[in-house]
Amino acid sequence: MTVPAPPPVIDLDGVGFTYPDGHRALDGFTLAVGTGESVAVLGPNGSGKTTFALHLNGIHELQEGRAAISGLPIAHEHLPEIRRRVGMVFQDTDDQLFMPTVREDVAFGPHNLGLRDGELDVRVEEALEKVGASGLIDRAPHHLSGGERRRVALATVLSMQPDVLVLDEPTSGLDPAGRRELAGVLAELPITKLLITHDLPFALELCDRAVIVSGGRVVADGSCVDVLADEPLLHAHRLELPLGFDPRAGWAARHTP
């Protein structure tokens, strides 16, 4: 007896979305991502990357096509479970950190799920430990550095124990040390990850696969190193590597024991 393959963790087919002003942001967007994959989502500003991401936990309602998370349709009746399964870390940490202390911010989601007392404390402590921020638990978020705030924002998502982690421009505003610390944290997370980023070396460091989004659809999909080594492809979609950066050398260094 043949056992059917599990559904992709992320499965979008022919998704279309038009904003009220008539702007067509997604036009036949199709993408499937398997369990445990780390995928870089690349493309110029206005290409549809963030609009796509906002479909994954139902912030944007599906207008056209099909969309599911681990086989569960992204639809109004499933939104509480979809939003538990898909954790989003926004570019602006102010969108996620709004409580007086780090402890309260990380506890906010699980508390709304019904966790209380010791069970809630354990969930908070585990999430902060995963991002190396246990020592920040009683700090005020607005007193943290950019890198610390980014890690705490990540912990607020991990406390919900999601199946998918979506990060929108995760290195935005980080200094080199904060960027390096975040990369180390993300590399250790055994979870399906989507990184929406213009930071191409960061994408190569963390992702084996990359897709390019342009005009509201996926126009390239391949190994991260092959996509980043294709200079005409990058140029056509307004993507640039740092001067002198060789993606094949970077990939080789990452995979050398």
Automatic annotation (TrEMBL):
InterPro entries: AAA+_ATPase, ABC_transporter-like_ATP-bd, ABC_transporter-like_CS, ABC_transpr_CbiO/EcfA_su, ECF_ABC_transporter_ATP-bd, P-loop_NTPase. Transmembrane segments: none annotated. Residues 10-240 form the ABC transporter domain. Pfam families: ABC_tran (PF00005). SMART domains: AAA. GO terms for molecular function: ATP binding; ATP hydrolysis activity; ATPase-coupled transmembrane transporter activity. Its main location: membrane. GO terms for cellular component: ATP-binding cassette (ABC) transporter complex. It is found in: Cell membrane. Keywords: ATP-binding, Cell membrane, Membrane, Nucleotide-binding, Translocase, Transport. Belongs to the ABC transporter superfamily. This is ATPase component NikO of energizing module of nickel ECF transporter. It comes from Euzebya pacifica.
